Amino acid sequence: MITDALVARLCDRVAASTADTFNTVDVFTGGTLAKVPRSSPEDVAEAVEAARETQRVWAGVAVADRIAIFERFHGLLLKHAEEIMDVLQSETGKSRRDAFLEVSAPLVTIGYYARKAPKLLAPQRRQGMLPGLVKTSELRVPKGVVGTITPWNYPFALAFMDIIPALIAGNAVVLKPDTQTALCTLYGVDLLYQAGLPQGLLQVVIGDGPVVGTAIVDTADYIGFTGSTRTGREIAARAGRRLVGYSLELGGKNPLLVLADANVQQAAVGAVQTCFSNSGQLCMSPERLFVHTEIYDDFVRRFLDEVKRMNLAAGYDYSADMGSLTSQRQLETVQKHVEDARAKGATVLTGGKAMPELGPFFYEPTVLTDVTPEMLCYDNETFGPVVSIYRVATEAEAIDRANATSYGLNASVFSKSIEHGERVAAQLKAGTVHINDGHVVGLGSADAPMGGMKDSGIGRRNGAEGLLKYTESQNISAQRVPLVTPPRWLPFGWYVKGMQGLLRLIRRTNIR
Ligand code: NDP
């Protein structure tokens, strides 16, 4: 459990020079959990400078030696998983099952990049301008100091899934976790230093986004942001003015399609798992279910049975299917969306009210039908345990309606035929599409990049792209003999003719 000594040790890792603090909330009880330090913009400037100093040395460390630290970190994460889950649950109110999945995600990230990074980051020979006469290589140079800004819903997974590749690529990181969920992130940072990360390479600052987050965006060499589309736009505009790169993992209004040939029971169980994961506070959770009319009644009956069977509880064991929402703000958003829908004529098939008897921010898993475009929950992200079911007459209608949103993060398709599911997936405008699953297998398939289309983001995490985005490519080309400056005695027109002949020969013989 969280002791004062643990809080003090973790808070020592925060770059904060004043005595200012924030109180964080123990979500299951509503009481105070901890006091965490507040960093100032000056602290951010110092953290970036200190990180920059350490990064110069780190960039010269062999990739294999960098990876060895993360392999030790992997072992420490497994060893301390229970304590991390305790902190994570206190700060977020999520169920132990959701906490387990969250703590597991960085393990997959480490395993993948430990295998792939040495080759991805190694200098690559490239074809030179003229075969044999020009030697060309592509190097991968770290960006320098990466600013990582993360939200409260998956604070541990989202921070480490980004920090790990950024550091392996040779960067330093200045991290701003969400204040409410700072402790679990600091727990991981502490373990990473125990694993041997050079002191100062990973800096943590805590404070209000518009103050401390902005200070990072104004000074770092690259920004990795996960959060709302609204904040993502502000960060993109600011980083754009400085001409520094960024990746943005943003919101969604994800569709789940149950096709006529779906295994209806599997779809009902799968939909419950993904829709109410982390109480729906998951960027990839579906909030819109499009169900083919042929199986609509059967699906709705089975889906409701599964929802009503869910166990909600505030507990530190694995018995709860779903935990609490994380904050009063989130509870109010959910209540607002459901009350608005109810007032405008939606039908509440199940749920629809808070559960203060379980904890201050608990809310029932809620299923709506008859949702229409003038309702808030129709196309705004609720980010809570609220889904709307729509009956569709054809597959084409399901695809059109699934795509009729400004977002494009994740989608799910349920069908007995994977090939059929793949054909539908190819028509969906979403960065990730899951077939017969909601969000787990795509996230866990670290070899394939994932991220958002449209308003759901720019850039990808995972895969080669999730590592190489933290680097600049550098083209190093050498001419082995003088080619671009003809000898003085050669008339330039002859030189042009010679070069054109050479280009023609290369084209014809396809030497390149
Ligand atoms: P916010 O955008 O409000 O906040 C995210 C982070 O950004 C927080 O650390 C916040 O700090 C900080 N921040 C806020 N304003 C600024 C600013 N002007 N400049 C720099 N940083 C700032 O998002 P939420 O916390 O509400 O997170 C939920 C959202 O995140 C949802 O829309 C969800 O869909 C999305 N998300 C996307 C994921 C993805 O991978 N695509 C994954 C998880 C969530 P502070 O704590 O002070 O507010």
From TrEMBL:
Keywords linked to the UniProt accession: Oxidoreductase
GO MF assignments: oxidoreductase activity, acting on the aldehyde or oxo group of donors, NAD or NADP as acceptor
Annotated signal sequence range: none
Residues at the catalytic site: 249
Pfam family, one: Aldedh
Residues of the Aldehyde dehydrogenase domain: 18-475
Superkingdom of this protein's organism: Bacteria
Similarity section: Belongs to the aldehyde dehydrogenase family.
Protein name: Succinate-semialdehyde dehydrogenase (NADP(+))
Source organism: Kibdelosporangium aridum
Originating gene: gabD2
